[in-house]
Amino acid sequence: MVDSPLVRGGLTIVAGIVTGNVLGFVRVAVTAYLLGTHSRADSLAVAMGPVDTLNQVLINSMVFAFVPMLTACPAARRTALFLKLSRVFTWVFAILSVALALAAPWLMRALAPGLDPRSFGAAVVNFRILSLSTLAAGTAAVQCAWLYMGRRFAPMAFYQAALNVCTVAGALLLWKWLGVAAFAAGYLAGAWVQLAIVYVAAHRGLDTSGDPKCEVAWRDILAKPSFFVIYAAALGLNITFTRAYATHVGTGMAAALDYCMRGVNVPLALLVSPTSNSLLPEIARLRSLFRLKDAFRLIDRTIGMVALVAVGGCAFALLFRVPAIAVLFQHGSFTGDSTRMVAAVFLGLGPSMVGWSLMEIASRSLFALDRPWPPVIAAAVPLLFNVAFTLGCGSFRPEWLGIGSSAGLLLGFATLLAIARVNRPRWLAQG
Fold first, then answer.
1. Which alpha helices (H) appear in 224-252, and where do they start and end?
2. Which of the listed ranges 209-213, 221-225, 259-263, 315-319 does the model predict with the highest average pLDDT?
3. CB of 46 within 8 A of CB of 243?
4. CA 214, CA 431: separation in Å to the nearest integer?
5. What whole-number distance in Å separates Cα of residue 69 and Cα of residue 224?
6. Per-residue pLDDT band at 79 (split at 50, 70, 90)
7. Which of 223, 248, 278 is at the close of a domain?
8. Could you tell me which of 387, 305, 315, 403 has the C-alpha nearest to residue 352?
9. Among residues 105, 130, 127, 156, which one has the least CA distance to residue 43?
10. Mean pLDDT of 174-203
11. 151 and 68, same structural domain?
12. Burial level of 335, CB count in 10 A (0-12/13-18/19+)?
C-alpha cells in the first residue's frame, strides 16, 4: 500500500502539513512573546495577513489550474509548456509584487482603517517587505505544478515549514536591529528559500533539447486559473474584511484575530488538504468513466464525514480555548489580558472552521467535476453576509468580531449545497 505513489504522496503532504503547523505554533508563540497584543502586533498582523492570504491564493490557483493542464499535454510538448508557464507568470508576479510595494500606503489605509496612527508607518514598511514574497511564492507555485504532475510532492510539502522556520529565525536574529520588521524579513527569506528548493528540484534533469515550441497562447495560459483565483480570493477577502474591521474595535484586536486564525487554520489544513488530495483524483477518475452517480455519492459521504469531525473539533476548541491559549501563548508580552482578549475573539471566529472546511471540500469537488460556476457564486456569499452583518450590527465587542465570518461561511456552504442539489439531475443527464 505504501509503495503506491499516491499513498506516498499523500503521506508526504500530511507530514508537511503537520510539520508546518507545529512550527506555525512556534512562530505565533514567538510573535506573542515579543509583541503580545500591542499596536506593534497590529502593524504586523494587518501587513502579513493579507499578503499571506494572497500567496496562498496564488499557490493553490497555480497548482489547481496547471497540474491537470500539464498532465493532459502530450509528453513531447510538456516541457515547452512548463517553461512558457514559468516565463509568463514570473513576469506577472514580478509586476504584482512591485505594484503592491508601491501602493502600500493606500492599501494599508484600506486594509487597516482603524490602525493606531503611531503604528501606520511600521505597517507600511512591513507590507512593502512582505510584498516581495509574492514573486517568490507565485513562481514557486508554477514549479510546484510541474513537480506535482510528476508526483514529486516533498519539495513543496514543507513550504509552510520553511516559512515558519525562517520567520522565527529572522525575528530572533534581527529583532535588536529591525524590531517588528524582523518578522517580515524572516518571512520574505523563507519564501525565497522555498523558491530555490522547488526551482532546483523542478529543473534537475529537465531536458529542453529539441522541444517543440509551445503553441498555447499566453492569453489562454492567463485565463486558465481565473475561476479558482476568483473563488479563493473571495474566501480570502472574508477574513481580510474581518481583520480590517478589527482595527476599529481596539488596539490589539487585529493581532488577536491572527492568533485565533492559528487555531482555525490548523484543523482546516488537516481536514481539507489530505481529504481533497485523496478525493479529487478519484472524482476525476469517476468522471472520466462517466460514473457521475458514484462521484456524487463519494462527495456526499466525504462531506458528511468532514462535517462530523469539524463540528466535534470546533466544540472541543471552544470549550478549552482559555487554558489552551494561556499554555501556548501567555509568556513575555502576552499577558493574562491578552489571553482573555484572544479567547473572546475565538468565541466568534472559531466556528468558521466548520463552514470553511465544508465549503472547501464541496467546492474543490465541483472544480474536479468541471463545474466551476457554483463555487465561484457561493464564494461571494460569506463576504457579502459578513460585511452586511458586521456593519449592520456595529458592535465593538470582541466576541462579535468573527460571527459574521463564521455565519457567512456556513451560509455560503448552504448556498453551494443548494445549487449543487438543484443542478445535479441536469449534470447527471449531461454526463
1. 226-249
2. 315-319
3. yes
4. 32
5. 9
6. confident
7. 223
8. 403
9. 127
10. 95
11. yes
12. middle
Phi, psi of 96 (to 5 degrees): -60, -45
- One domain, residues 247 and 309: yes
| End-of-domain residue from the set 206, 223, 240 | 223
- Candidates 360, 169, 141; CA nearest to 264 is 360
Is there a single domain that holds both residue 297 and residue 392?
yes
**Which amino acid is located at 15 in the chain?**
A
Whole-number Å distance between alpha carbons of 280 and 142: 20
CB contact at 8 A, 405 and 352? yes
* 209 plus 289 within the same structural domain: no
Do you know the residue count of the chain?
A: 431
Range of the domain at 247: 225-431
Instruction: Calculate the CA dihedral of residues 348, 353, 354, 356 and round it to 10 degrees.
Output: 110
Tracing cell 525562517 back to the chain, one arrives at 166
- Which of the 8 DSSP states describes residue 204? T
Question: Is residue 349 within 8 Å of residue 257, measured between CB atoms?
Answer: yes
Q: Kindly tell me if the per-residue pLDDT of 241 is higher than 80.
A: yes
Same domain, residue pair 49 and 156: yes
In angstroms, the CA 172 to CA 188 distance is: 15
Region of residue 332 (phi > 0: left; psi between -120 and 50: alpha; otherwise: beta): left
Separation of alpha carbons 366 and 413, rounded Å: 13
Number of Cα atoms under 13 Å in the Cβ half of residue 260: 38
CA dihedral 125, 130, 135, 138 (to 10 degrees): -150
If pLDDT is split at 50, 70 and 90, which confidence band does 279 have? confident
Q: Residue for cell digits 478549552?
A: 320
Rg (CA), the chain: 21
251 Rama sector, left if φ>0, alpha if ψ -120 to 50, beta otherwise? beta
Category of 148 on φ-ψ map: left (φ > 0), alpha (ψ -120 to 50) or beta: alpha
Burial of residue 287 (CB within 10 Å: 0-12, 13-18, 19+) is middle
| 137-184 tens-digit pLDDT | 999 999 998 988 877 878 887 888 999 999 999 999 999 999 999 999
Which parts of 350-402 fold into alpha helices (H)? Answer: 352-368, 373-393
Which residues are within 8 A (CB) of 224 and not within 5 positions of it... i.e. 6 or more apart?
A: 65, 66, 69
